[in-house]
Amino acid sequence: MKGLQVDLVFPRFKILSGAERAILGIAAALLREGHRPRIVCHQFDPSCRPRLPAGVDLECTGAKLDWSRNRYVNAIFDYLRTLRLAPALDPNADIRVFFGPALLLAWRRTWRRRRGSPTIYYCWEPPRVLYQDRKAVLSRVGILRLPLTAALALYRRLDRRMVAAMDAVVTSSPFAAQQIESCYGRPAHVITLGVDRGRLDQFKRERRRGTPVLLTVNYLHPRKRVDLIIDAVALLCRNRGPDDGPAPRLRIIGEGPERASLESKARELGIEDNVEFLGFLPDDDLPRYYWGATCYVHAAVEESFGLSVIEAAYCALPVVAVDEGGVRDTVVDGVTGFRVPASGAGVAQGIEKVLAIPDRGASLGASGRQLVDSRYQWRRGVEDLLTLARSVRR
Question: Is the pTM of this model over 0.90?
Answer without folding.
Answer: no
